[in-house]
Amino acid sequence: NRRLRILAGFVLLALTYLPQYPKEFADLQALLNKPAPAPAPAPPQPKPLSPVQTRDTALQLIAAADIQQYVTQLAASDMAGRGTGQPGADKAASYITARLDQLGIPYLKQPFNTGRGTATNIIGYLQAATEFENKIIVVGAHYDHLGGNAQRYYPGADDNASGVAGVLEIAETLAALKYLLKCTVLFQFYSAEEIGLVGSAY
């Protein structure tokens, strides 16, 4: 359907991206302030895929059931609306990082002060093993919502559990197709959007 093909479009961009206007980027490891891992042995080079073959492969990996499960979990009552600075937002952050761990995607947590307490951005990344590795595509979504109170909570399925679900599904697909990456991809999950785009500005 249309939504799955939009997700596949993001995947295809990361797998076939060829920059026309090169720019200098800082090394990704320095950008993320993490020590560089030991270089891994080069894997056997698979036969190159055409853009159409790449798209079709990505479409086969994107699953509507996965997206539905992500939205259901993030909008569940135990997340309590994922209000910034509330326990539900912390639980949502833990859910996201647990999924990144399962996918083998490294990440960092970026805490910041909102003026109303502390919130945390999450930044995962897949680094391309090509000459274009210093070219970066960012795929992001905010995971916080309006929270709730003793009487009710606001699930936030479309604001923005669905966006987080899309980023997680793109991350899962690109992790499986990492050997095809033509550029580095950052997966950014922002907090404190509901109180003024604080996380993405940080």
Question: Which keywords apply here?
Answer:
202 residues, alpha+beta, globular
Question: What does the secondary structure layout of this molecule look like, with pairings?
Answer:
Elements: H1 2-16, H2 28-31, H3 51-61, H4 64-74, H5 87-103, E1 107-113, E2 118-126, E3 136-142, H6 157-176, E4 184-190, H7 198-201
Parallel strand pairs: 3-4
Antiparallel strand pairs: 1-2, 2-4
Describe this structure in words.
The chain is α+β, with helices and mostly antiparallel strands. Helices cover 41% and strands 15% of the residues. A four-stranded mixed sheet has the order 1-2-4-3. Strand 1 (107-113) and strand 2 (118-126) form a beta hairpin. The protein starts with a helix and ends with a helix. The model is unreliable at 18-28 (pLDDT under 50).
**Gyration radius from CA atoms, angstroms:** 18 Å
> What is the overall shape?
globular
Helicity, as a percent range: 40-55%
Tally of helical segments: 7
Order of helix and strand elements from N to C terminus: HHHHHEEEHEH
CA(first)-CA(last) distance: 35 Å
* Overall mean pLDDT: 82
For the biggest sheet, the summary is: 4 strands, mixed
Going across the biggest sheet, name each strand in turn. 1-2-4-3
* Structural class by secondary-structure content: alpha+beta
Quaternary state reads single chain
Low-confidence stretches: 18-28
Work out the strand percent: 5-15%
Quick one: how many beta strands?
A: 4
